[in-house]
Structure prediction request, 112 residues.
Amino acid sequence: MAVKIRLARAGAKKKPFYRVVVADSRNPRDGRFIEKVGTYDPFVPHENPQRVCLKEERIRYWLSVGALPTERVALFLGKAGYIPMPERRETPHKSAPRKKAQERIQEVEAPA
Prediction:
């Protein structure tokens, strides 16, 4: 059984609230989970300790038995010091301006 530590969405429409849960990777995002190990509230300011609350002992246990955190949860765990800080992935190149747009930008920036 592949076990993941991931976010499960709760809260109202347009007002998300997330639970950090340990779940079988085959279950749906908001479906059945094994254990709730924390919460994440994106509407709380960054510096507030209530933004991300984690149960350290249980998270360390699940990591020790092989549970894998998702990217977002790995970032939370890295900031909390439970695991090494994960590498940030680069922005996809799909969002970069295309060739003609880049040529126009270079023409504008070039000395006239």
Summary: Strands lie at 3-12, 15-24, 35-40, 52-54, 68-69. The chain has one domain: 3-94. The chain has a mean pLDDT of 92.
